[in-house]
Write a structure and sequence with these properties.
Cytidine Deaminase, domain 2
Length: 157
C-alpha cells in the first residue's frame, strides 16, 4: 500500500481590497444576488456571480422549494444562464457568497461537479472566490481544488 496526500492550493485575503478590481466587482455582484434568494424555509441565502471573458457578470441566487430536492443552488442558476445566453464566452471566475457571518461556505458537491463540467467545456480553469457577507476571501485557481478526482465525460467511455 502506498499512502498519498492531497494538497489544496488556495489563497486567503483579509478583504476584497486585496483583490484585482474585476474580482472585487464580481464579489459585489454575488452579494447583490443575495437579495434575489428565495429561501423561506432555511433562511440560508446564497448569491453567486460568474465573470465571462468579455467582462460580463452573471448573477445567480438560490431558489428553495417546499419539496427540498427541487431546490436550485445559486451556482447552478448562474451557470445555466451563462451557458444559455453566452454559449461562446468562456467563464473566467465564479464568486460565491453566503449571508452568514464569519462562515466559509463553499459550493455543494452537486455544484462542484457541474462547475467541473463547465471547466472541461471551457478548456480552462474557473477561478473560485468564496466569501461571507464581508471579511476574508478564499481564492482557488480551479474548482478542481475543491473537487479532487472530478468525474467527467472522458470517464464514460
Amino acid at each position: 500500500m502506498v499512502e498519498l496526500k492531497l494538497e489544496v492550493d488556495y489563497r486567503c485575503y483579509a478583504s476584497t481590497t486585496e483583490l484585482p478590481p474585476e474580482y472585487q466587482e464580481l464579489l459585489d455582484c454575488a452579494k447583490k444576488a443575495l437579495d434575489l434568494s428565495y429561501s423561506p424555509y432555511s433562511s440560508f441565502k446564497v448569491g453567486a456571480a460568474i465573470l465571462l471573458e468579455d467582462g460580463t457578470q452573471i448573477p445567480g441566487a438560490n431558489q428553495e422549494n417546499a419539496s427540498y430536492p427541487l431546490c436550485l443552488c445559486a451556482e447552478r442558476n448562474a451557470l445555466a444562464v451563462a451557458n444559455i445566453q453566452y454559449p461562446s464566452q468562456k467563464m473566467v471566475a465564479m464568486a460565491v457568497v453566503a449571508a452568514k457571518e464569519d462562515i466559509f461556505v463553499s459550493p455543494c458537491g452537486a455544484c462542484r461537479q457541474v462547475i467541473w463540467e463547465n471547466e472541461q467545456r471551457n478548456g480552462a480553469p474557473i477561478t473560485m472566490l468564496i466569501q461571507g457577507p464581508e471579511g476574508k476571501v478564499y481564492s482557488f485557481k480551479s474548482i478542481g481544488d475543491l473537487l479532487p478526482f472530478g468525474f467527467s465525460g472522458t470517464d464514460l467511455g
